[in-house]
Amino acid sequence: MSSKKTLTLYLLRHGETEASREHLFCGSRTEFDLTPEGQAMAENFAQAYRDHEWRAIYSSPQRRARATAAPLCMALGIEPEIAEDLREIDYGSWEGLTTTEVNARFHDAHVAWGADPGWHAPTGGETGANIALRVLKVIDQVRSKHKDGDILMVSHKATIRVLLCALLGIDVGRFRVRFDCPTASLSIVELTRNGPMLRTLADRSHLSAELRELAGT
Fold first, then answer.
1. Residue 123 · residue 106 · CB < 8 Å
2. Among 194, 60, 55, 81, which Cα is nearest to 135's?
3. Given a cut of 80, is residue 2 above it in pLDDT?
4. For residue 106, what is the DSSP state?
5. Among residues 11, 29, 4, 15, which one has the least CA distance to residue 214?
6. pTM for this one?
7. pLDDT digit string (tens) for 107-165?
């Protein structure tokens, strides 16, 4: 809005996929489409926010994120700006596996990652610290282009939680235990003169009651 004096980030996680429903490690190397329910989540969000005044819409390049942004972008008649660094964590050799499978095949690495994912990566994958570095570059780019207004950023579970930690001064090694981020949830951070202020965490009020009750991550 023209009268708005701060820049506000709306961080939207993509809708449900088979991987989120089945609790699989699904990172930057793995592409899953939205389930029909995930598509409905995207459409619910678009319906709730189509009249909101957006400065810009950014999306991860991965299909599940772009598909979540698509209904709103279509309603507004705009294209999202694709930001490579909004992609999900790289889970390396764990991609597509369940927690039980990872623990059996990569036990020591899984234990280390569980203790401090900020500095211990999934086997062949990416640390939380690295995610923080790349996603904060996106925020810098956004701030250089937009001085105020509301920015929608469609991304992923780990990426959003790491970004929240980085913005709010929380150890990124705690990203898995400090913030919830279920499918199609919205978190809002206002970049005030005193620093980032968390306004909303993991809101899903834009979803129908049936979609909010779905099992999965």
1. yes
2. 60
3. no
4. S
5. 15
6. 0.96
7. 999 999 999 999 999 999 999 999 999 999 999 999 999 999 999 999 999 999 999 99
Reduce the DSSP state of residue 120 to 3 states and report it.
coil
Give the whole-angstrom CA distance, residue 30 versus residue 92: 10
DSSP 123: T
Task: Look up residue 102 and give its amino acid.
Answer: V
- H helices of the chain, in order, are 18-21, 36-49, 63-76, 99-105, 107-115, 128-145, 157-168, 175-178, 209-212
Check residue 93 and give its pLDDT. Answer: 98
End-to-end CA distance of the chain, in Å? Answer: 33
Contact 148, 162 (CB under 8 A): no
Dihedral of the alpha carbons of 39, 45, 50, 52, in degrees to the nearest 10: -150
